[in-house]
Design a protein that fits this description.
- The protein has a 3-stranded antiparallel beta sheet with strand order 1-2-3, covered by helices on one side.
- About 65% of the residues lie in helices and about 5% in strands.
- The protein has one domain.
- It has helices at about 5-10, 10-15, 20-40, 45-65, 70-95, 115-130, 145-160, 165-180, 185-205, 210-220, 230-240, 265-300, 305-330, 345-365; strands spanning about 95, 100-105, 110.
- It has about 375 residues and is mostly helical.
- Helix 3 (about 20-40) packs antiparallel against helix 4.
- It has 14 helices and 3 strands.
Length: about 375
């Protein structure tokens, strides 16, 4: 029997995971606040556009949440193939921006297929392992198709060049393979091969600016006014915020333009200077709750496809957050990974909102009585 609240609010709206939506709104709202401050107390040019994108993608996520698991399974391979063709199209027709060729102009809009590939790859791998008999997991048939699914988009993305997205695709794919139950010896062998491959990749595959980023990560003080400038200023901003921060609109590193990209890749440093360790821990806790919720969706799921999809998408969100935080604190090379829902820009926000929409869809399936 429906209570008075249910009789007023339509059932599709009442069934939404409002605690999760509230958490996402708080993270996004905090991001808008930080971007407002980064512009010196102005909604232009970042806070307003960020707010508009956030509302649009939040609505998209709510729409996606009403699709059923069967829809995601049906569209997993077609979406993967279409996105792979989009990546190939980027190589042939894509626009070059900042030395990288990542965008595909459709006339009425520009899209970045490499971002869409992150959830598309998770869905494709989850469908593959969902249809694979458990007895086949120890055979090569469980490995080479998955490696092909991962390798094709990774190869197209790495030549854009976009090292950060390539790492995200490979890491997400490996996580799904591991959770699918493949023998541990395959991953140990892969780690050994990777360790042997890294020196070759560093010497022959990375662009000069990518090698400089790695060398700067190892010793940022070697060129503090050149390649090490970003990370040096980021550390100064975070450290100067102290425990409680300098206060809203009182940051100096970003307002005086000492901190480069303080509204995109290094937005966490902008926030930490004004809100201090308290603000940083609150933001990290918000993301931790979001990721924990996604993992629990996977734990409650009843099918292999749903479990692998939920945990794989949760890892995708985790990868964004973890790499960005390590990057701005000097624990990882600068690879251009933004802080989702907080950094200005639509690509990462779109990807994370797609992940959240699919997770809400799977969560809805878990709550439907069978």
């Amino acid at each position: 029997m429906r209570n008075n609240y249910d009789s007023v609010v339509p059932q599709p709206i009442a069934d939404l995971p409002w605690r999760l939506i509230t958490l996402v709104l708080l993270i996004g709202g905090f991001g808008i606040t930080i971007l407002y401050s980064a512009a010196g107390g102005s909604a232009e040019p970042w806070a307003w556009s960020h707010a508009v994108r956030f509302c649009m993608f939040m609505a998209m996520a709510i729409f996606l949440s009403h699709l059923r698991q069967e829809h995601w399974q049906f569209f997993a391979y077609p979406v993967y193939v279409a996105t792979l063709l989009g990546l190939a199209g980027v190589e042939a027709l894509g626009q070059i921006n900042g030395g990288s060729q990542r965008w595909l102009n459709l006339g009425f809009m520009q899209i970045q297929p490499s971002e869409i590939m992150k959830p598309a790859l998770i869905l494709a791998l989850a469908k593959f392992y969902d249809g694979l008999p458990s007895g086949e997991l120890r055979k090569l048939v469980a490995i080479w198709p998955a490696l092909l699914l991962i390798g094709l988009p990774a190869a197209l993305v790495v030549i854009q060049p976009d090292l950060g997205t390539t790492l995200a695709l490979v890491a997400g794919g490996i996580v799904v393979m591991f959770l699918a139950g493949l023998p541990l010896r395959y991953f140990i062998g892969g780690l050994i091969a990777l360790a042997a491959f890294i020196p070759l990749a560093f010497t022959f595959l990375l662009e000069d600016y990518q090698r400089n980023r790695v060398l700067t990560f190892l010793n940022p003080e070697n060129d503090p006014l050149g390649t090490g400038y970003h990370i040096t200023q980021s550390k100064i901003a975070i450290g100067s915020g102290g425990f409680f921060g300098k206060g809203f609109l009182n940051g100096t590193q970003s307002h005086l333009a000492y901190l480069p990209e303080g509204h995109t890749d290094f937005v966490f440093a902008t926030m930490a200077e004004e809100f201090g360790m308290i603000g940083g821990l609150a933001l990290i806790a918000g993301f931790a709750l979001l990721i924990r919720w996604g993992i629990r969706v996977g734990q409650r799921s009843k099918t292999t496809f749903a479990r692998l999809t939920a945990v794989g998408l949760s890892f995708t969100i985790f990868f964004y957050v973890a790499v960005n935080l390590m990057m701005v604190m000097g624990f990882a090379p600068v690879v251009g990974i933004p802080l989702p829902l907080v950094s200005h820009g639509g690509s990462a926000m779109m990807t994370v909102m797609i992940c959240i929409g699919i997770l809400m869809s799977l969560d809805r399936e878990n709550r439907i009585p069978r």
